[in-house]
Amino acid sequence: MGRYSVVFSIGLSVPPAIYGALVLALARLIGSETTRVDVLDADVGRTVGAVCGLSGTSDIVDSSVVVSARAHPSRRRDRRRHRPAPDRLDPAARADLRRRCHADVMRARENAGVIRAIWSGRSPAWRAGAIVAAVVLAGLAWWLGSPLFIRTTLTEALPTAAPTAAATAATSPGGLSGFTPNPSPTGAAQTLAGPVVLAQGELGFVDDLHNGKGPVRIVRLGHQRIVRFENVAITNAPDVHVYLSRETGGKWAEATSLYLGPLKATNGSFNYDIPANADLSLYKSVVVWCRAFSVLVTWADLKPV
Predict the structure, then answer these.
(1) How many Å apart are CA 65 and CA 150, to the nearest integer?
(2) Residues 284-302: tens digit of each pLDDT
(3) What separation in angstroms does the CA of 171 have from each of 158, 184, 192, 248, 302?
(4) What is the largest CA-CA distance in the chain?
(5) Which fold is adopted by the domain 152-304?
(6) CA-CA distance, 160 to 196, in Å (whole number)?
(7) How far is CA 42 from the centre of its chain?
(8) What are the extents of the domains in the chain?
(9) What share of the chain is helix, strand, coil (3-state, %, to 5)?
(10) What's the whole-model pTM score?
């Protein structure tokens, strides 16, 4: 081990056990304006040994750091370049250094003892409860926070209705194969069995954490009606659910809205069945709502096709 400890101008004191002669050579290159070498004499060595003995550790490196830091208290207050080296400290200063090091060690050991006393003084039931509470809190934090960076994908096919002899294939105005615009009353019998888009809208932007993209449609398949999310991307959140609302612009009321179910995925295409007795003329939008924080995730105002 080298006999020198290097102290840099940024206030970092590096003990000799780390660098030794290699850093001394580097110090010569850097120059005395920004680097100073402290001599590790017998007194400083004894001080390091005393710190090791008082703290109950054999780590000479950490003890050397404490001694070097205590020898240069001015480094924590300013950036002056001229500071006394440890070998220039008088006996009284060295004794004060040992006293302060001892006080630091005793304070650290006392704090650790207080923590151990608090824990060991509790009953086994209390300690078990504390561990269970910590696990529950960690799980709750994961449940609330993980949706911010977790995405799920689901691809559901459009349900098929029983074909009729008069059913014909068609294409919707948006170029989506398999969809037929809402037919006129005279053509209803011809397209009853095929997928018919009754209304549609685009998911909207609420803020950076709550938004969605992609179309949402109300589709009729024979006598079945569904809400269809088509190739959508929705930001995630905990406990998210889907509603048909009688209002627009993301507004809704639980008493008057139609609940469709939990959000199946954040990305992809999926369907929600609409009850046969629901009057679709009353509903004007689809709302995606986070129950955990009572916040709007996204919505789509529906327009008849």
Answers:
(1) 44
(2) 999 999 998 899 999 999 9
(3) 15, 16, 15, 28, 20
(4) 110
(5) Immunoglobulin-like (2.60.40)
(6) 12
(7) 52
(8) 4-120, 123-151, 152-304
(9) 35, 25, 40
(10) 0.51
